[in-house]
Amino acid sequence: MEHFDVAIIGLGPAGAALTRKLSGKMRVIALDKKRQCGNEGFTKPCGGLLAPDAQRSFIRDGMTLPVDVIANPQIFSVKTVDVDAALTRNYPRSYININRHAFDLWMKSLIPDDVQVYHDSLCRKVWREEDKWHVIFRADGWEQQISARYLVGADGANSLVRRALYPQHRIRKYVAIQQWFAESHPVPFYSCIFDNAATDCYSWSISKDGYFIFGGAYPMKDGQARFEALKARMEAFQFRFGKPVKSEKCTVLFPSRWADFVCGKENAFLIGEAAGFISASSLEGISYALDSAEILHGIFGQETADKNNAYRKATRKLRLKLYGKILKSRVLTSAMTRRWIMQSGVAHIPVTQDDQPTVNAGRLVNTP
């Protein structure tokens, strides 16, 4: 049984960034469910928008995005729709439109060859014994076992590592559903949609490389029915769907309290969404995945006896920022406060092409 310094479970943005940074400094093994190349098997609903905080992470690392990761078009505003109030507003946003799966594969491709990486693998069990972490996983057609001094859970919303560390911990979860359609809108756009009848979270749309993507986060019990009902209501706002080209579904975390951010213990660490590091106001997680990976990399480089405590302290600023997102989400998902903000017109940029009919009190009106 091989022994490593660090075992990293999951190679999304958080795991891939940390693995790359630890290369050459520690003996690392990394396990990932995705295949090394190709689109088969990738069904994670994600709008694929790189937020300014994520962009800053790449600036700090002196990295640039390759052309094949960038999607078209690049749009500089988000159309925000309040379905109940029949309000539409346009707010400026500096996102980069990307192909999320290509982005993840590119992040993995940056991992140097000295790291032992298993693609298309499944982590089955982790446990601590004799001051070591033990991992059983299936890869290359057979079951294998390794041990490591440190264990890192970068395995997302359904994190096996988080469940092993905190078996009693419960965090609010939604089902994220997303469908792709052939683009038929005359002008491509991004949108953020609030409809309290469908969800107390939010929904979205993105135009990307000739496709129109519509998705959202809904209660686990009847998410699909709520998704379809919202699609029907959005036709009144000039959303065009047609026959879906493909559908995607996964679990997404929705932190709602300070205790939802968990950092790890006993030489095991959580980064990215596995730690609850995801924005409650936008469900954006790439920024916090990259930030938490950078923080943990710094902790591994320190001569610190209690690395768990050091990581917890080092992520406090990040967790405070995410707690602020929880407070913001409460404002945005409240029908009353959201309507007041949108009616005020603060930060709204009127767009002539966006003056299209919406529904108000059962009749069509033009959005001001």
Automatic annotation (TrEMBL):
Q: Which InterPro entries match?
A: FAD-bd (IPR002938), FAD/NAD-bd_sf (IPR036188), Geranylgeranyl_reductase (IPR050407)
Q: Which residues form the FAD-binding domain?
A: 134-168
Query: Which Pfam families does the entry mention?
Result: FAD_binding_3 (PF01494)
UniProt xrefs under Gene3D superfamilies: FAD/NAD(P)-binding domain
Q: Which residues form a coiled coil?
A: none
Reading the lineage from the top rank, the first entry is: Bacteria
Q: Which family does it belong to?
A: Belongs to the CbrA family.
Can you say what this protein is called?
A: Protein CbrA
Species for this entry: Citrobacter sedlakii
The major lineage groups are:
Bacteria, Pseudomonadati, Pseudomonadota, Gammaproteobacteria, Enterobacterales
